[in-house]
Each structure stands twice: as C-alpha cells, then as structure tokens.
Amino acid sequence: MPEPVDSRVAVYIDFDNIVISRYDQVHGRSQFMRDRARGFSAADREADPEIAEKLVRATVDVGAIIDFASSFGTLVLTRAYADWSVPVNADYRGQLVSRAVDLVQLFPAAAYAKNGADIRLAVDSVEDMFRLPDLTHVIIVGGDSDYIALAQRCKRLGRYVVGIGVAGSTSRSLAAACDEFASYDALPGVKPIPPAPVKEKPEPAAAVAATATRPSRSKKTVTDATESAVKEQTAPKELSSPAAPVFSDPESAVPPRRRASRRAKSPEPEVEEDPEVEPDPQEVATDLLERALRLGHEKDDADWLHSSNVKTQMKRMDPSFSEKTLGFRSFSDFVKSRDTVAEIDETSTARLVRLVPALSDR
Hints:
Layout: E1 8-14, H1 15-27, H2 31-35, H3 49-57, H4 62-70, E2 74-82, H5 87-90, H6 93-98, E3 102-105, H7 116-131, E4 137-141, H8 148-156, E5 160-165, H9 172-177, E6 180-183, H10 205-213, H11 219-234, H12 256-265, H13 281-300, E7 305-306, H14 307-317, H15 331-336, E8 342-344, E9 352-355, H16 357-360
Parallel strand pairs: 1-2, 1-4, 2-3, 4-5, 5-6
Antiparallel strand pairs: 7-9, 8-9
Helix pairs in contact: 13-14
C-alpha cells in the first residue's frame, strides 16, 4: 500500500529549450545555431567528430531534473515537448522513457517552428489544472520568458509553481513569477561542465613546406616504371575472341541459377549485436542514496535527516528500490554499508542520517 502523500506534482519540460540552453552555456552564446547541432547525434562520430564531442560535453542529465521534481511530492504527470525525430533529441528518448516521461511529439508546421512547444505546454498545463483539481505543484522546466503568464495563472489557481532553467539563458522575470526557481547547474547530481579537450598544435609551416617539396617517387620506382613500359611495347598483342567475355569477378562467371543456389546453401552470417550491459544494482543504489541525501539537505537545510524521509525520497526517485533485494535486513543496515556516502547518528534514539562531510562540500 503506497504511503499517503499530500503533494501531487506535474512536470512540464520544454526539451528544446533546455538542450539548446545547455549547449550554448557550455560552448558559447548562440553556438547551437552556428554549429547546426540540431541535425547531429552524439553517437554519429563519422559525420562530424567535433560536433559529436560537443554534444557529449553538453549532455543534459534528465534524471537530476526528475529527481529534484520528485522531492516536492508524488509525480502524477511528467511530459517532455519536442520534435523527437530530430537526432539531437532522439538521443534522449531512452533516458526519458526509462523515467516514465510522456514524450509529446511536435511536428514543425514550418521550417522554423517558433513557440511550438511554448503554446502546447501552456495549453496542456492549464487543461490539467482544471481536469485534475488535486494537483498541488506545477514544475516548468524552461527559462523562456513566454512562460511568465503561465506561471502567474498557475499561482492564481492555487498551485505552487517551481521553475527550472539553465543559468545564463533564463529570464529574470520568469524566476520572479515562480514561487521557487532552481538553476539546472545547482541541482543535486548535475556534474560540473567538463573542460574543453586540448587541440593538437598544427605542424610548423617549415615542416609542411619540406613535405610538399619532397619527391613523391624514388629513382628505383621511376626506373621500374620505364622498364615495364618498354616491355608492353615490345610484347606481342594477344587476339581476344569477342565470344569469350572476360570476368573480373570469378563469381560472375557462374550461371545465375547456380549462383542463386550457392547463396541459398551458404547464407551470410548474421552480425550479433552486443547486449546492453546492465548497471550494477549496488552502484545504482549508492548513487540513489547520495542524490536523496543531497536533495534532503538542500530542502530541509538540516545537518541530519530522518532515515524514513530519506527512504521515501529514494522510493519516489526509483520505485523499484528495496534494501531487501540488495541483501540487507533493514534500511539502517543498507545505509551503514555505504559509509563512504552516508553516516548514521548512533547516539540518537531517532534514526538520523546525513551525507558525509567530505561529499557535502562538493
């Protein structure tokens, strides 16, 4: 039986906004449009290795956003708006589907679908507030100033509005219109921007000039070519019969019927795809505990947290979590086994837990 929770949360993600803003934050203002990164995939390194590397460095941690949203209560709606046929967005489909995010497809009606996600997101959120009167929190992921009116209307209808945006690409007016606003960079679990890779220095101009003036063939190669040309001129020409065609491929000399029978007898071997490597459940649980503790310390602003609240937050973030399936009799035993991440107050009768000081400073 689920634990009674008063707060019910709806999350609306303007996915194009958050992806483009993060890319521009990492690589420079308006760099997403200059690089035309919309048509690239992070896995497609053959098309443009440099753009693929940039996309990897600017990857958005969707799990950190959803985990932060779950700290406000039970997630009853989670929607992400984008054109999912675009390669840069398609890279996130697996990550979003695994977190039960509803992907809303936006087909562009023109070459540049301006405000497509903004309007659809606003219409859906207002409809959901009237359709689901028990909604208590509305979380808008996107820093566009177009959401100011939506945030004000949600507050007017009695909802607690939380905004999430990328630093440097968020409207100050939108932050003021929300009850609470969080920067994506400050969310627990979001890693800092990785440093740019060091480019190799180009070769000096003198070395390039020496390579260009260097003869491409040696004297021995030229002599061999001359001798072969003389032999071709002196050798008698062979008469070729027009009825005997010359086959460059030995297989092409075989009649079509026999060729078909050969292919049927010896089918081409199927290429086996590498199975997906399942993450270690113990490592996943450790990361889940660390994120839950970071969220608890940030929201409660307390040194010690009740273990029951920490476990509830972990269950919100991952409903499949169970310390018993991991081999522990109680949640306290599970926390004690993670002494590099968490500490338990043994002196108190209440079960209190906190993040180790070494990690809380990061």
